[in-house]
Design a protein that fits this description.
Length: 266
């Protein structure tokens, strides 16, 4: 007797495949979520890189005192073609500057909606709802989530180049002043100016405290412009103040201030 075995892979329906993918993310089973991605994407990004992005996000969320689920999703409607399945989906996740959830969409349909969530310390962090299309494509091994990671890499590289150029030519720090008080309090005040033509949504500064030999003895970070707060428009300035009271005893009351990152609007 001859037995004929079907060599085609078992085909999980695309909507079910998408639900499994999103449920894996909610459960923080990132390896399983990666396994649900299309081969065309997995060829571009390794499992280690995919998992590391989400784990880094989880660590940032935990450090901000948030417990429980960090993601909610809703599949509004779907459209199926022969080898393509489009799902109009909303994903809500905590956004601490670089949420990996935004990179799951084949295309984003509207501006992210921001809300706030209170943490254990009674402070607020931001939850962002992304709305767009998640795409699945049918490959030999079945349906997989396809987010065009290769194109994302190219866009990220271009955005990084633009940010570096804007930091160099579009942002200036002036009026730096260090004030030291008898009770050991010390502060740096300065002004950040947007001399370029783009709106600055976030600017990260590194303040390096120097000893008498000009060597670093302490490093602090400051965001005079923060996401989800008032942006810095072209031609405008923003005063900021940094508490340096915790600097070590060898600090020579001198600092080096560097602009290390920024996020740009239109």
């Amino acid at each position: 007797m001859l037995l004929f075995v079907n060599s085609c892979p078992r085909q999980t329906p695309p909507r079910e495949r998408l639900v499994e993918f999103l449920d894996s993310l909610m459960a923080k089973n990132y390896q399983s979520a990666y396994d649900h991605c299309a081969f065309k994407d997995r060829y571009t990004k390794s499992a280690d890189e995919f998992i590391a992005g989400f784990k880094q996000h989880d660590d940032e969320v935990s450090s901000n005192g948030i417990e429980g689920s960090v993601i909610f999703y809703n599949i509004d409607s779907t459209h199926a073609q022969k080898d393509t399945f489009l799902a109009f989906t909303k994903i809500t996740a905590l956004d601490l500057g670089a949420s990996p959830y935004r990179n799951l969409f084949f295309s984003v349909l509207s501006e992210p909606i921001t809300d706030s969530v209170k943490n254990r310390k009674s402070a607020y962090v931001y939850a962002v709802t992304y709305e767009g299309v998640i795409c699945l494509i049918k490959e030999h091994e079945g349906w997989g989530v396809y987010a065009r990671w290769e194109e994302q890499r190219l866009r990220d590289a271009e955005e990084s180049r633009v940010r570096v150029e804007y930091i160099k030519n579009g942002l200036k720090i002036s009026n730096r002043k260090i004030s030291v008080y008898p009770d050991a309090r010390a502060y740096l005040t300065a002004v950040l100016k947007n001399t370029g033509i783009r709106t600055v949504l976030d600017a990260e500064l590194m303040i390096v405290c120097l000893d008498k030999d000009g060597k670093p003895c302490d490093i602090l970070t400051e965001h005079p412009v923060r996401k989800h707060a008032a942006p810095l428009l072209p031609g405008k300035t923003r005063k900021f103040k940094v508490d340096l009271s915790s600097a070590p005893g060898e600090w020579a009351k001198a600092v080096d201030v560097k602009i290390v990152n920024c996020f740009l609007g239109e």
